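Our consortium's second objective concerns turning raw sequence data into structural hypotheses that experimental partners can test. To show how far this objective has progressed, the report includes one record in full. It was chosen at random from the queue rather than selected for favorable results. The single chain below, 333 residues long, was entered without modification.
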Amino acid sequence: MGVPSNLCREFSGRRVLITGGLGFIGSNLARALVAGGARVTIVDSLVPEYGGNRRNLAGIAGRVRIHVADVRDWPRLPALVRGQDLLFNLAGQTSHMDSMSDPQTDLDINCRAQLAILEACRAHNPGIRIVFASTRQIYGKPDYLPVDEAHPLRPVDVNGINKIAGESFHLLYSRVYGIAATALRLTNTIGPRMRVKDARQTFVGVWVRRLVEGEPFEVWGGEQLRDFTYVDDAVEAFLLAAARPRAIGEVFNLGGPPRVTLQRLAEMLVEINRGGTFVVREFPRDRRKIDIGDYFADDRRIARLLGWRPRTDLRTALARTVAYYRKELPHYV
């Protein structure tokens, strides 16, 4: 299935910068853009905790430019953004627990650095088109379901607060300075090249790793409802947001296939793997304080304005993910 090739070709010859481009979504985005003929430059800090992995570009590394650089290194930003047509801004700290134990680092990456990127664009490339990776975490514990873009923003952790700021900076610079920006509020994105070393990016990665290693995994809670987005579908949303003028200045939720309980998700993984075990446990006390309960998104707005819809059903998404890590796991642990 993958990302539609006709959409990828819309970026042929375009100069594209991807921050966080050696990470999960960024690398899959790079692969789609390279396939479409774009001239791709990647910026990634390769800080071990944040998910960048050179293996993610296996097969295309010679067709992209890679700068190992940290978005917190502000003096380097002007040279990186200058001359680019598009910026997919995916650099970020994603761990909710890390944001609580080390809030200053989360602030530096998800807030201060985002402002610095936008200032570099304003001063050195005001015509650039930007798509920013925001998160459903900014909603906090839902007042109602499904959650639409009008839902109050009431995050339960430092990460969510800083991501609101990062998103707000992008929309402000679009509105005030004319720097064309769009924000995508991502839900649980899964698929090949996601981080499986730990749960800093997604708990599903840990489940998949343990399953492939033949070890039991833990399901906390079990009855909570979630939706999931397969990475190819997320990439398609980023490309549509960059290609369609009506997306400028807008915010969109991404949603996935029909909602599922975490216990059912675990059962599906075991079925797909044709074996494996898991244990359902209560949420750890420290996690319970920042847990959001049930969540699934209303994605009708992006469907209406950009024509996006998830193409990949959950079972297919899980099967592709498990198959990838059966082959590639040594490169990700």
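The partners drew two points from this record. The radius of gyration is 19 Å. Residues 11-331 form a domain with the Rossmann fold fold (CATH 3.40.50.720). Both points have been shared with the crystallography group to help prioritize constructs.
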